[in-house]
Amino acid sequence: MDIAFPRIEPSVAEDSFRHGSGRSLPVARIELGGVPRGAAIVLCDAGALERDAAGFMNGLAEHGYESVAVDLSPTGGDPTGTTDRDLVSDVAVLVGRLGERGWSPAQVGLVGYGFGGRTALLATAEFALGAAVSIAPSGVADAWSDALPPLIQVARHVRTPWLGLFGQQDPGAPADVLARLGSYLGGSPAHTEVVTYPGVARDFYRDARETLAHVASFDAWQRTIEWLDRRVVPRPTPLAAEWQRRVASAARA
Amino acid sequence: MSEYIEVDQEIPRFRVNRKVMTDPAVFAVERERIFDHSWLYIGHETELAKPNDYVTRTVAGRPLILARDAKGKVRVWVNSCPHRGAMLCREPKGNARFMTCFYHGWSFNNSGEVVSIPDDAGYGAGFERPGLAAPAKVGSYRGFVFVSFDPDIVDLPTYLAGAKEYLDLVSDQSEVGMRVLPGTHEYSVKANWKLLTENSYDGYHLVSTHQRYLEMITAAHGKADISFASNSIAVNLGGGHAVMAGTPASGAALGRPLSEEAKHEKAEHFERLRQTHGDAWVDRMGGTRNLVIFPNLVVIDLVMGVLIRRIEPVTPDYMEVSAWQLVPPEEGEELHRQRLDNFLTFWGPGGLASPDDVEALETCQRSYAAQRELPWSDISRGMHTPHKGMNGEYQMRTWWRRWHELVAGEALPEEPQAPLPDFFAGQRQRPASATAEAK
Ligand code: FES
Ligand SMILES: [Fe+2]
């Protein structure tokens, strides 16, 4: 990026997912002043909240999205086993948190990486959000745990437009399984797309010097932002809201 | 009589002056009197499968966006930012609920409203925020979407006149609705656009121009039976629209021979259609039809494949052509495979037929440089008889009469047409449910 934006340090606080899985988890937040374009939920890969959240959230903020980020993956000492239903209700809790800041579901984008990418796809079957992107979702062909079966078995048609980004050399997402998943999701009422990056493994979204890896990470981020910009309903500025009121009352008169 | 077309009813003779193929002034008049006042095809509803799908098209020179909005309604917008003009969508197709202009970042939804303007405080509270512009009219018939830039034009069904029946014959070939396959054939021809409208229902050129294709047919079938041409017809459908149509003999003659499996499937499919639509209608379906809807939409149904072709005039001696394939989606794999093969081998830009047409038209255009020495093209074939067959040129004269009426403001004398043979008058049986309701 040529323009250096000031880096925002997300605030991190424990939040209770009482209406979801019942866990208490650290949630990172970036709230923006002025009129942000939209809001985003970032679901980090298992164990990667500290490593990844600030970078992704700053990237989103550059495009006008304030965000919350969380790692919903089951922790080591989780004896009962978090289920898919738990995960989806945890996402509902986050949608609710953004709702408290005035964001309607259509104004929210959902971006998930790895384990979070898997959760993002499951959540799109439940919620009509603005847009969703799963980057290198894990657990596509293989079960994560007994309680978390492979995506190819549990994915359902989506209600939120969904973009799936994959590394061709990701052993967890073989081409034939991806082709099946893509064509099944193509029957959804909402638009879906699957993109596979050649010559890269599942961490393709992290920038690297090697050409294919650099290209894949650049393209993946560009696509993610464009996917959101084309679908997440923007929040009107006060002047835009005033104009909408004027148009509506003129239409009524 | 104008300087453009000369009709002699005695000889009889119908001639078109080659100036109309080369003169920029004629081209400008066509833009204004034809293209600004007709219904023009833009695309098929099935190209927009999901909410927020869009395609971009150039229609009569205007860049347009054909979209299905977030609520599922088909909309058409001018593909230009109301701010200072940059093109909003620069891709041939995609899916987007919001389109953001890359110049200054204004953003619009696919219902045409401006949803955000960066740093909008720079405009003050009284600013009238402009939405997207649209053509005056948008209409759809059996999934074929048309636009018109004339707010006072007659409604689309009235405009289509007798062409509706032939769109029905094509559209009724699927029990779930005919669908356009993804992908567009796009090619250009260095020739006047009217030459391709003429060519699209010219039965006379089949044997001479398409030797290459017929040789393939002969090799594949053991013979090329083109005797079907003798009981085919050309019909004036009103409004400048015309069709050349054949009997089932024509439908069986073209395309590679079907495999046993495909033959069987096709027979079963037609049998089911008979239950719904009745024999008279389905018998007609089994024949070919080359339809030109004035001014620039071509629908060619050779039974082995159905083509939608749109001709976009660019300059007097250059046109761009887009073509799509319309298919019954319920078709099985084998029949579908053979349909795709037929489509490519006949109409493909690298196929065994279309390139020969393009070559013919481009040589016509080059030779019009000698129009002072040779000013007239002859379109009289079949004028001496009321029995209009596909090897005549009545279908083209029908088109030219409408052209002349609009461009020169003068109606040319009509010519008598014999009543339609019974076969071509067969109508669709009313569906059982409709009959039940009527009782
Ligand atoms: S021209 Fe589109 S925003 Fe300026
Ligand atoms: Fe031809």
From TrEMBL, chain A:
GO terms for molecular function: hydrolase activity. It comes from the Bacteria. InterPro entries: AB_hydrolase_fold, Dienelactn_hydro, Dienelactone_hydrolase-like. Residues 88-230 form the Dienelactone hydrolase domain. The keyword Hydrolase applies. The keyword Cell membrane does not apply. Pfam families: DLH (PF01738). Keywords: Hydrolase. PANTHER family: ALPHA_BETA-HYDROLASES SUPERFAMILY PROTEIN (PTHR46623:SF6), CARBOXYMETHYLENEBUTENOLIDASE-RELATED (PTHR46623). This is Dienelactone hydrolase family protein.
UniProtKB/TrEMBL annotation, chain B:
Residues 414-439 are annotated as: Disordered. InterPro entries: ARHD_Rieske_2Fe_2S, Rieske_2Fe-2S, Rieske_2Fe-2S_sf, Ring_hydroxy_dOase_asu_C_dom, Rng_hydr_dOase-A. Residues 40-147 form the Rieske domain. Keywords: 2Fe-2S, Dioxygenase, Iron, Iron-sulfur, Metal-binding, NAD, Oxidoreductase. Gene3D superfamilies: Naphthalene 1,2-dioxygenase Alpha Subunit, Chain A, domain 1 (3.90.380.10), Rieske [2Fe-2S] iron-sulphur domain (2.102.10.10). Belongs to the bacterial ring-hydroxylating dioxygenase alpha subunit family. PANTHER family: 3-PHENYLPROPIONATE_CINNAMIC ACID DIOXYGENASE SUBUNIT ALPHA, CHOLINE MONOOXYGENASE, CHLOROPLASTIC. This is Rieske 2Fe-2S domain-containing protein.
